[in-house]
Amino acid sequence: WTTGEFCQYCKAGSYGNATSPEGCRGCNCNEHGNTALGVCDTVTGVCYCQDNTEGPTCNKCKKGYYGDPRRGGTCYFQCMARGMLTSWEPQGLGSRLAEMSAWESRQGPPSRECLWIISPHDLHNKTEVSSVIQLVIDPDISVTCGDNSVYVYDGLPDFVSMGTHQSQVLGVFCTQDTIYPVTVEARSGMMTVHYKQGDPLEGFNASVTVLTCPDRCPRNRVCRQGACVCPEGTTGPDCSDQLCSNNCTA
């Protein structure tokens, strides 16, 4: 954990006093420390948090997010009437926490209507590089089929914008008749997720990843013709499924 001509400094990713008997020890940032900044302060050990976490060890979610970020867990962007996710970094969204003030004033149980617009680009900038937005709905989904299903769109649907952005439905998801996790991808550079929650005990969580060549392809994908794709012979959301050789003709 030390560096320098005389091993007198703590390396990035560690903290302490390299010249003392205690020496240096690894940062404890629950896998959310920013490596570009050195993970944590080399003297105090206070973490440089990312992934929408905060606290000395990145053990809490920022305001507006919920979850358990300990041991690398995800913080989910809460339900909002119109929430924007613009980060290039992997992140989460979900309906299990919401801003309730607007609903609590109504008579009867609250009905949460959640809308997330995911776009790592400036919506008005046509020169941005193309990217694929990947959404994975977690297995803990509890959503009754019908009006309360989770609707996922590639682009902006008409009820959000009547502008030039076209959209198509990528899927309508609920608990029944589907094996989770489920992965969908938007290729327009924008994705919209809409969910109206009638039962406060129901809800879902999902994770979002932006795939962009060549710098933001996951390690299990390769950049080919401007797209992050699975290596030849593999397929699936994480490229773990093997394709049969010779297009299954052998």
Present the secondary structure layout.
Blueprint: E1 2-3, E2 9-10, E3 14-17, E4 23-26, E5 53-54, E6 60-61, E7 65-67, E8 75-79, E9 83-85, E10 91-98, H1 101-104, E11 112-118, E12 132-137, E13 150-155, E14 167-173, E15 182-186, E16 191-197, E17 205-211, E18 222-224, E19 227-229, E20 234-235, E21 241-242
Parallel strand pairs: 8-10, 9-11
Antiparallel strand pairs: 1-2, 3-4, 5-6, 7-8, 10-17, 11-16, 12-15, 12-17, 13-14, 13-16, 18-19, 20-21
InterPro entries: CUB_dom, Laminin/Netrin_ECM, LE_dom, LMN_ATRN_NET-like_EGF, Sperma_CUB_dom_sf
Domain Laminin EGF-like: 27-77
GO biological process, one term: axon guidance
Reported for the largest beta sheet, the result is: 6 strands, mixed
- Under the CATH scheme, the architecture of the largest domain is Sandwich
Q: What percentage of amino acids are in beta strands?
A: 35-45%
C-alpha termini separation: 54 Å
Number of helices: 1
Number of strands: 21
Radius of gyration: 22 Å
Number of domains: 3
Structural class: mainly beta
Mean pLDDT score, rounded?
Answer: 85
According to CATH, the fold-level topology of the largest domain is: Jelly Rolls
Top CATH class of the largest domain? Mainly Beta
Q: Can you tell me the residue ranges where pLDDT is under 50 for at least 5 consecutive residues? A: none
**SSE string:** EEEEEEEEEEHEEEEEEEEEEE
Please name the fourth-level CATH homologous superfamily of the largest domain.
Spermadhesin, CUB domain
Shape: globular
Helix content: under 10%
- Oligomer status: single chain
Sheet with the most strands: spatial strand order: 7-8-10-17-12-15
